[in-house]
Amino acid sequence: MGEVTGRTTVAGVIGDPIAHSLSPAIHNAAYRALGLDWVYVGLAVPGGRGREAIRALPALGLAGVNVTMPHKADAAEACDVLTGDAAALGAVNTVVVRPDGSLLGDSTDGAGFLAELSALGVDPSQSRILVLGAGGAARGIVLALGRAHARLMVAARREAAAAAAADLATGAESHDWRDLTTLVARCDVIVNATPIGMNGEPPPFDPALIGPRHVVVDTIYHPAETPLIAAARAQGALAANGIGMLVGQAAAAFTLLTGYDAPLEAMYAAVGSARSRG
Fold it and tell me: N or C: at which end does the chain have fewer Cβ atoms within 10 angstroms?
């Protein structure tokens, strides 16, 4: 990415708040790595105006946007066409403006998570996986893991919410927090898809239950080491934070928007640089 001119292709991310987003750093680094005349910006769109913002993309000449909280459901409603994943979730995190001006909505969260599991050496089809949470991130992960033939257990504070998420994957079990002691003992992989730990909260189960046989993935990336990650590493488990999923979903979105394979090395380097600047 060189000088921004009237010929520069514009993409971005909408959300509220948006100032903290690492997406501009990640995508602009990828554009530079491939020499693309593109620029990626953060667009602060107040809650309740996501549909309006998405419908305006063709008129503004944007190539597309990524979508974060609280607009994922509104963005899905605003799109003309949804991929299978987006339709199943009723939410999108990537909107592409197609050549005819129509809007394609997709969700790359699941693909990003599967890429992270692969990097950790985990084969979902050979694993019993416990997903904590039933919100948007959890639902995307459950859908992807179900299609990858994982044996799934979904746990949330409210079992009704867990059941709704578990319905996205054939054969998935649903539970509430009361079952966590048994569930941790039964699983190979623990996935935290809740905000628990973002502000230093301990995991919703005794971390001493984690052992060296476990793989632990926390979708939180700030802070880099949550209490769950710290406990897992102390117990000898392989543990990873949400950076891998963040870059994985960004890479899938990058390819949707540009048509090019994502330069992963440059994208990871951008995350490191952005985090070191605070």
Answer: C
